[in-house]
Write a structure and sequence with these properties.
With about 180 residues, this protein is α+β, with helices and mostly antiparallel strands. The protein is built from 3 helices and 7 strands, in the order αβββββββαα. It has a 5-stranded antiparallel sheet with strand order 1-2-3-6-7. Strands 4-5 form a two-stranded antiparallel ribbon. It is globular, with a radius of gyration of 16 Å. It binds cobalt (II) ion (CO).
Length: about 180
């Protein structure tokens, strides 16, 4: 089911999400709704708080660019990450990021180049993964959401000011 995406500067985006305790059908429904919502909005990642659920769950699905019908994000390729913890990170990289909660805005953000995480899948099985590159960026972006942080907070003072001004204007014109 496609859910409504929480849009910046909604206060819910500042909430610290709670650890997932039961890996039950309710969690599976949440993850399925997150996938439907992310696909509908043409995103590559989504944290549960972005549909208003303050739980430490996020999904990432990097499109298959070489797919014959263009951009494809089959459900089975979805990485479902529950209660993640960063075990190691190093280096730095700059990448242009966007966010379904700040639609239409993109800006360069600096993050660790390499990360290694431990997490649980939807069945409560322990997993780990490490990556350097786009997946590492996406994971760090989504993990920030679990702690009530959003990528625009990482911009320089001047860029942030400019963004806030433009964003206010855009929200007004959409009324
Ligand atoms: Co985001």
């Amino acid at each position: 089911m496609i859910r409504r995406v929480v849009i910046y500067p909604d206060k819910r985006l500042k909430e610290i999400s709670k650890e997932v305790k039961s890996f039950d059908s309710e969690l599976h429904k949440l993850l399925d709704d997150m996938y439907d919502t992310m696909i509908d909005k043409r995103g590559v990642g989504l944290a549960a708080i972005q549909i208003g659920e303050a739980r430490r769950a996020l999904i990432i699905n990097i499109p298959i660019e070489s797919a014959p019908e263009g951009r494809e994000q089959p459900k089975e390729n979805t990485l479902e990450i529950i209660n993640p913890k960063i075990v190691e990170k190093r280096g730095s990289q700059k990448f242009q990021e966007g966010c379904l909660s700040v639609p239409g805005f993109y800006e360069d953000v600096e993050r660790a180049e390499y990360i290694s995480i431990e997490y649980y899948d939807r069945y409560g099985d322990r997993k780990s993964l490490s990556d350097s590159g786009f997946l590492a960026v996406a994971i760090q972006h989504e993990m920030d959401h679990l702690d009530g942080k959003i990528f625009v907070e990482k911009l320089s003072f001047i860029k942030r000011k400019k963004f806030e001004k433009e964003w206010k204007k855009r929200l007004k014109s959409n009324l």
